[in-house]
Specification:
The chain contains 3 helices and 3 strands; from the N terminus they run αααβββ. By secondary structure, it is an alpha+beta fold. It has a single domain, classed as Single alpha-helices involved in coiled-coils or other helix-helix interfaces. A 3-stranded antiparallel sheet has the order 1-2-3, with no helix packed on it. Helix 1 packs antiparallel against helix 2. The longest helix has about 30 residues. It is elongated and about 55 Å long.
């Protein structure tokens, strides 16, 4: 019985990973067409899926939303991006959080 349960969990995780990447792609498309509220909603749903099924969000999507207010960040519209002293500085316009990411 436990073998079958593990197989179902693995299938659920695979489905969750696919849905998360699809939702974050949709968030990117919605943000580029000036629908930021819809993009924020897609990010919210993707985060909930990630937490429910214990699936990490893919690395390429992690920096596409704010870590404090969880809004989709579109440079120039909802955030500013600067490079200063070998660091990428991202400033969210909504919650005023500043993220500093080192460059290698």
């Amino acid at each position: 019985m436990s073998k079958r349960k593990n197989i179902n969990k693995q299938k659920q995780k695979n489905i969750a990973e696919q849905r998360i990447s699809k939702l974050l792609n949709l968030a990117e498309k919605a943000a580029h067409s000036n629908k930021l509220k819809l993009a924020d909603r897609y990010v919210e749903i993707a985060r909930k899926l990630s937490m429910r099924h214990l699936v990490p969000i893919p690395k390429e999507y992690k920096r596409s939303y704010c870590k404090k207010c969880y809004r989709y960040m579109l440079p120039g519209t909802s955030c500013s991006v600067r490079i200063h002293r070998n660091k990428v500085i991202i400033h969210c316009f909504y919650c005023k959080k500043i993220s500093r990411i080192p460059l290698n």
